[in-house]
Amino acid sequence: MNPAAHIGRAAIAIFAEIGAMSIFALKGAFAWVSGPFYTREFLSAAIRVGFNSLPVVGLTAIFTGAALALNIYDGSARFNAETFLPQILAVSIVRELGPGFAALMVAGRSSSGMAAELGAMRVSDQIDAISTLAVDPFKYLISPRILATTIMMPFIVLVADLIGILGGWSVAVYALDFEGATYIRNIDSFLTAEDVTSGLVKAGVFGFLISVMGCYYGYKSRGGAQGVGGATRSAVVASAVAILASNYIMTSLFVDF
Amino acid sequence: MSETTSKISVRGLRKSFGSKNVLSGVDFDIEEGESLVVIGGSGTGKSVLLKCILGLITPDAGEILIDGVDILKLSPFERSRKTRQIGMLFQGAALFDSLKVWENIAFRLIYGEGKASGPSRAIAVDRLAQVGLPAEVANLSPAELSGGMQKRVALARAIAADPKILFFDEPTTGLDPITADVINRLIVDRVKAVGATAISITHDMVSARKIADEIAMLYQGRIVWRGPASDILSSGNPYVDQFVNGRAEGPIKMALKSA
């Protein structure tokens, strides 16, 4: 076949997929508006995504903060600016690394989990069964997951920010001889509310993308165990790419005033 | 045209997936309270037929009339109101494994109709009794049940809201002959008890003859024969004869790919 036709077909397929995903996301985000709202499903998703992610997100944050402190110290010492370590570290964590790392960890945990769960439900006819029992699968399965992840993600990131800063503080105080109280005071006087809130806005968007990818690939999965495996893989890869790409777009919007 | 409206009428129903024609012009009527069994080999589009009527798959062409109204011409909202009167027993039971047995049975009552969980639980236990299961089963999870018990629970779930129409997708597949007979009896019993109109699809001839008032045979996307269940052994139709007698030789060539 004509190579140009191949490229054209691939391009059309990509746009069709993005279109289908966008329609799915809108349907999922707003299906609950016309009621009913399944509170129990929402709370259970919120606990699974939010609360149960905290240990792994906390561990990621503390090591990231610790390693970042060493790197910033080493780099800034080259032009005698190591006293700015607390400020640089805090800004890096709350604006970029807290939301980014937390989202990637939640993508690995929850996006894959949703894709596998919904995929298994799809291939065993459970999603069709929901429809035949006069319940809308979007209201029962998709909306609660999207809402819960979007709402919980900023809280997860807030915790990641605090633990990340704590990780940096520990290294700075115990390994690099910073004075603990001064370190905190420096951060406090330097950090603005916008630094933190921009990270939390990112977090909400990441949460939305993670849950949409997880639900989309799970809901559309076909063909038994292999199909579910493929859905899980696609969900994680697509969420990671969506997180990093949207992160750049949002950062350029926030920084460029 | 008949003067009385059939409960379900299917006219010229077509559906293909890619280049494969699964349904190529299916026509049938089913009267209220009648039990129709559709037989046919694997991959002849029996499940697709039911899913089209349920609104889970959109056909390429044709009409599906329920109570005389073409559901394909309705808005999605109106259509789902029409298909709400259909209860379905899925081939693999399709129980929700995250919920307990009684929550499965009461799913429609609680989540679809917004009933409180107390009365819904009582109804669920009552339905369990109707399919011959003790009340202790109510608190188990579906994974703790045997295949036959899962089928019974799925049947209880399908009939929980007294649907006017019931679909059974291979209700006895994968069950031992005794359990299969229990399920067959329950189906006949429940369909009669609620006065429902039933469509079952199966390739189990014992089951078909027990459940059916009428049997229709689907082959290459069309109904090739239809008649009373008692005539199935003397249909004179070469396709039906080959199928009911289970012969490899005959006019039917089995499809290699599943639908």
Description:
The complex is a heterodimer of chains A (257) and B (259). Chain A has 257 residues and is mainly alpha-helical. Chain A is elongated and about 65 Å long. Chain A has one domain (3-255). Chain A has nine helices and no strands. The longest helix of chain A has 39 residues, at 85-123. Chain B is α/β, with parallel strands linked by helices and 259 residues long. Chain B has a domain at 97-160. Chain B has nine helices and ten strands. Chain B has helices at 46-54, 76-83, 101-105, 107-112, 117-130, 147-159, 177-194, 205-211, 238-245, and strands spanning 8-17, 20-30, 35-39, 61-66, 69-70, 86-89, 165-169, 197-202, 214-219, 222-228. In chain B, the strands form two sheets. Chain B has a six-stranded mixed beta sheet with strand order 6-7-8-3-9-10, sandwiched between helices. In chain B, strand 1 and strand 2 form a beta hairpin. Chain B is globular and about 55 Å long. At the A-B interface, helix 5 of A face strand 6 and helix 4 of B.
List the helices and strands and how they pair.
The complex is a heterodimer of chains A (257) and B (259).
Chain A: H1 3-30, H2 39-49, H3 54-76, H4 85-123, H5 126-132, H6 137-174, H7 180-190, H8 193-219, H9 224-255
Chain B: E1 8-17, E2 20-30, E3 35-39, H1 46-54, E4 61-66, E5 69-70, H2 76-83, E6 86-89, H3 101-105, H4 107-112, H5 117-130, H6 147-159, E7 165-169, H7 177-194, E8 197-202, H8 205-211, E9 214-219, E10 222-228, H9 238-245
Helix pairs in contact in B: 5-6, 6-7
